[in-house]
Design a protein that fits this description.
682 residues, 7-stranded antiparallel sheet, 14 helices, 27% helix
């Protein structure tokens, strides 16, 4: 992999022969686990300007109509996460001279608060070609990481690293994006009578408790408002003119015409006839590939990250391919045609928790290499981890044609379908209906496409070893449990993100350059010592990081969140405001006051604190830095996904905490709303 320095450039064809499609990844490490940024792409003509606002791509406008650009979203890495962007360079309009790749932070956040800010570029086979580290980002709020530009018939990459103190607004306007704020100002009437009454009551209560002449602020949590917003209400986001009307599922269920509840609606993809694992594999493959061929938005979501171009897709099942004396029959084949060229991939599917067979995958890799296929895609309930492949295959580097091995989890497929039909929308009603039928099939208990659902054979021995204190550091079984815990947390993020339509990612607080295997070995040793598994989830729009911990000694699950104290106001009003916001939260919710000292603050259950919020205040007037909210729940003992299983108990604990606690908390003012809103605010 070639290391770039600021201002250097390189021809992509000099690095690889397979650069018709490339994947660009932007990454960074947040020491706190909460820092993040949004990527954006601008297509520029020979004058260095966008032709129209439709050449500006960001998270609310992630896909080009011609398939040349697709923002793939965030992917967890060993030390944080990275944003990936797929470019089909063969589909870029001839009127485009340069492609600028940038990222911006929002609110008062700066890139100097992040570490290891970098951009990498990989070819269609997934091989990393170049890397550029952006050093000393400092106080800027937006950075141009690099640009792709034409030279003759090919493309080159230039490492830029230019920062903008004026943020996304300065960057966008420099390239001719028309930022238009046509939204009406929000009024008190739009807040709703209930919320308005609550604000009035809160202000009156705070005013009665605080010294005269000082204005009360009772918002909790209440980070400082961005400059220019403190003196008045924030305007809603200007609606991007690039957004097109799309079809999503209706929020209210239509009234059924069935005579009684026992009637079942006819389905395009029935599951009642599935009797064996082989039946499930064949049906799941056929159902998925047929929907991919008919719904371009969905197929691009699944294949763009594998280097597939945007084009006419055909899919096939049960194809027989020669392989020595015994022909092989992969579960499926994907073929995409673009400008007379074919991109092809073999598909191997497993359902119902069945594992991939290394010799089978190896045979498909060999067949793909001989026949000129670009990729082999495996699709199972398992979740792949960085640095821990599901199967080990040997790649013959002497072959000129490279074949990429990619993996999808059924949980990822389900999430992408949810995001499209429930939150983002698709091109027409027929596509929405097809995705709805697919989603119903995948989520049916008989489909076998349930995602990760088994903590593995080491789960019970590790639990017993922790209970009787015989588990020693270095035990390979502890490492297996840690890896499966990481898989479970990633699946929880996928499921929750699909349901909420939000970005949900596991937080890694590893130091720069930490090897994923070394990190997991360290966590396995900690499990042997303290008997606990712990994870953190970052969810867009909530005022902190959601934590999940499993104590294998006590058999308890704890879900929690730390919310910061407001920067202004008075502690008593903070406590009252918090208790009032949690009026519908469970009575057994634990609330703890966090102090700027080594000693712990007051704590109690919500049931006890409701009549006396002042009990949250420290007796010695110590400085309050925030509040910790947590719920305890007994964890399942089994290794599987049954009602008494550990996996089901973790899912239930996260769901309960989010739906009964987190939803009642104030959304931080630095939340991500839309790129257009941040452009107008900066």
């Amino acid at each position: 992999m070639q290391e770039m320095i600021m201002g250097s450039n390189v021809a992509l064809a000099d690095l690889s022969e397979d650069v018709g499609s490339v994947i660009v990844s932007l990454g960074w490490v947040s020491p706190t686990g909460e820092g993040d940024a949004d990527v954006s792409v601008l297509l520029l003509d020979a004058n260095g300007k966008v032709r129209s606002d439709s050449d500006f791509y960001f998270y609310n406008h992630p896909v080009a109509a011609d398939g040349s650009v697709q923002l793939l979203g965030k992917t967890p890495t060993a030390d944080g996460s990275e944003d990936r962007i797929s470019f089909d360079l063969t589909a870029v309009s001839s009127g485009i001279d340069r492609i600028v790749v940038a990222a911006s932070r929002y609110g008062e956040a700066r890139f100097g608060e992040l570490e290891d800010v970098r951009i990498t570029l990989a070819d269609a086979a997934g091989e990393s070609l170049l890397r550029f580290a952006v050093d000393d980002a400092g106080s800027v709020t937006a950075v141009i990481f690099g640009e792709l530009y034409r030279r003759g018939e090919g493309w080159k990459f230039r490492a830029v690293g230019q920062g903008y103190e004026t943020g996304l607004a300065g960057l966008a306007t420099d390239f001719g994006v028309d930022i238009e704020d046509d939204a009406a100002t929000e009024t008190d009437a739009e807040l709703g009578a209930a919320e308005a009454d609550e604000q009035v009551d809160g202000a009156a209560s705070a005013a009665a408790e605080e010294p005269a002449g000082q204005a009360p602020l009772d918002a909790i949590p209440a980070p400082r408002l961005p400059e220019g917003e403190a003196d008045g209400p924030r305007k809603p986001a200007a609606r991007p003119r690039t957004a097109k009307k799309k079809v999503t599922l209706p929020k209210t269920v239509k009234k059924t015409l069935a005579e009684n509840d026992s009637w079942r609606q006819a389905r395009l993809f029935p599951v009642s006839v599935l009797k064996s694992d082989r039946d499930r594999e064949m049906r799941a493959t056929s159902v998925l590939l047929s929907v991919m061929a008919q719904v371009p938005e969905f197929s691009r979501r699944l294949t763009a990250g594998f280097g597939a171009p945007a084009g006419r897709m055909e899919t096939f099942t049960e194809v027989s391919l020669p392989h020595g004396d015994n022909p092989r029959r992969p579960d499926g084949v994907i073929r995409v045609e673009r400008a007379g060229k074919l991109w092809t991939a073999l598909v191997e599917t497993k359902t119902n928790g069945n594992a991939l067979k290394a010799d089978q995958v190896q045979a498909y890799m060999d067949i793909a290499a001989r026949r000129g296929y670009e990729a082999v895609i495996t699709l199972t309930n398992d979740v792949a981890l960085e640095g821990s492949p599901l199967v080990d295959v040997k790649i013959d580097k002497r072959r000129k044609h490279k074949v990429a091995l990619w993996h999808l989890s059924w949980a990822e497929v389900t999430q992408q379908a949810q995001m499209l039909i429930r939150h983002e929308g698709v091109g027409n009603a027929a596509h929405a209906w097809l995705l709805q039928e697919l989603l119903h099939y995948l989520q049916h208990e008989n489909s076998g496409c349930h995602g990760f659902q088994n903590m593995g054979p080491a789960w019970v021995p590790v639990r017993n070893g922790i209970d009787d204190e015989t588990l020693c550091q270095g035990d390979a079984r502890a490492l297996e449990v840690v890896e499966n815990w990481e898989r479970l947390i990633r699946q929880v993020c996928l499921r929750l993100g699909g349901e909420l339509g939000q970005k949900v990612l596991p937080v890694q607080r590893a130091k720069r350059g930490t090897d994923p295997k070394e990190r997991r070995n360290r966590l396995a040793d900690q499990l042997c010592l303290n008997g606990r598994l712990r994870a953190e989830l970052r969810i867009d729009g909530i005022p902190g990081v959601l934590t999940v911990s499993a104590d294998l000694r006590t058999g308890k699950l704890r879900t929690g969140i730390d919310i910061p104290a407001p920067e202004q106001g008075y502690p008593l009003s903070w406590a009252k405001r918090l208790v009032r916001r949690l009026a519908e939260a469970p009575a057994d919710l634990h609330v703890e006051t966090l102090l700027d000292s080594e000693t712990g603050g007051p704590r109690g259950t919500l049931e006890r604190l409701r009549p006396e919020p002042a009990d949250l205040l420290p007796k010695d007037n110590a400085k309050i830095t925030g509040f910790r909210l947590s719920l305890l729940k007994s964890m399942g003992s089994g290794r599987g996904n049954a009602e008494t299983g550990f996996i089901r108990s973790v899912d239930d604990a996260v769901d309960r905490f989010y739906t009964t606690v987190v939803v009642h908390l104030d959304t931080p003012t630095t939340r991500r709303t839309s790129s257009k809103e941040r452009v107008t605010a900066e």
